[in-house]
From TrEMBL, chains A, B:
Primary gene name: Nqo2
The protein's name in its UniProt record: Ribosyldihydronicotinamide dehydrogenase [quinone]
Known partners and oligomeric status: Homodimer.
Family: Belongs to the NAD(P)H dehydrogenase (quinone) family.
GO CC aspect terms: cytosol
Cofactor(s) needed for function: FAD; Zn(2+)
Length: 230, 230
């Protein structure tokens, strides 16, 4: 609806890919609804995935023994994180909905997107013990993982060779988003687009646009072990 | 035993960290046994985690639409991968055992190590359809995930707030290593070292050294859904 803010964190090297098209479809459909949409195009930004001392501007809290978690927490509190992180945190802070758009790499997100999680979601900003899970600092936001797979729907079925696709969603949806207090919408999965016809791929884009039309009416999933493993 | 080759893929920024000590303990103990040990110290190497066109030397198979999986597969076959990848693949090829040593970041490995998986384990080298899982190309090798956590053992218990620690091992052990045909030894987990005494941390190092003494007699886990989710 008008006024809602959406951040799309997008990780694909090729604009002509299905992931590129899925991203464009989301920008178009959500903009049409009057949402304000921001895209973090990680490869185009050459986003840095490595968690290093460079993420802290100025002196370290403890330069004798570098602890990334402690240092970024301290840096966050004094406004001393590197500017690329501050910028991403601003986008997250303003967003009502985070959409992660990527091709599945090794049962997870590509490293460039994992680096976004590792570096942007620092303690103090996204959580602060004991404020995690339902009291995480990013509560009142929604997240949706939208991705393509190499393997087929059959491989990712319960009893399939790669196991239920939900098994691999646990670390991303529960371990990251739920941990930060974000409510999780059902994932959007395009199975094996490289092995289907151009027409089927077009249907995938239409289905995504269709889902987005009523997205704001969706209820979040119950992000507990039952959803994933029962 | 003498002659066995071990590759330790290590991802921590600080040599003085517990992860740094665990890595050193492994090098020492395994060398003492007569193994030949190689370490890929990812942060020290400034290992590139991003999967990009730079990983392919020379012309692309299809420069109209960049597909990372296809391009690295083709490049592998003609010896056209970037030199850092060829070097890591050589280390993997020679190794009988791969040890991954890292702090758990967001229910998974740090992005720099995920990038190692994304970029090194290319089709043609690590698997080649339909040769995956038990017929993956890296069969006859062993892997072991050794990591530290922020959360406590209680948080990662079945019924704990973060769920059974085994849930998050599925993508790494099954989705990556088993997929490539590698047999998986039981993980080695140091829970919440930042919240225990110096003495407890020393015990963690001793326990690791102790385990390594009889590591070669261990049987791999049964890497199927039952191990993770039952």
């Amino acid at each position: 609806p008008p006024g809602r803010k959406v951040l799309i964190v997008y990780a694909h090297q090729e604009p002509k890919s299905l992931n590129g098209s899925l991203k464009r479809v989301a920008v178009e459909e959500l903009s049409k609804q009057g949402c304000s949409v921001t895209v973090s195009d990680l490869y185009a930004m050459q986003f840095e995935p490595r968690a290093t001392r460079n993420d802290i501007v100025g002196c370290l809290h403890n330069s004798e023994e570098f602890n990334y978690g402690v240092e970024t927490w301290e840096a966050y509190k004094r406004g001393g994180l590197s500017s690329d992180l501050i910028e991403e945190q601003k986008k997250v802070q303003e967003a009502d909905l985070l959409i992660f758009q990527f091709p599945l790499y090794w049962f997870s997100m590509p490293a460039i997107m994992k680096g976004w999680m590792d570096r942007v979601l620092v303690q103090g900003f996204a959580y602060e013990f004991p404020n995690c899970y339902d009291s995480g600092l990013l509560k009142n936001k929604l997240a949706l993982f939208s991705f393509t797979t190499g393997g087929s729907r059959e491989m990712y079925a319960k009893g399939g060779i790669s196991g239920d696709i939900r098994y691999l969603l646990w670390p991303m949806q529960h371990g990251i988003m739920h941990f930060c207090g974000v409510k999780v919408l059902a994932p959007h999965i395009c199975f094996a687009p490289e092995y289907v016809s151009e027409e089927k791929r077009k249907e995938m884009l239409t289905a995504w646009a269709q889902r987005l039309k009523t997205l704001w009416k969706e209820e979040p999933i119950n992000c507990s072990p039952e959803w994933y493993f029962k």
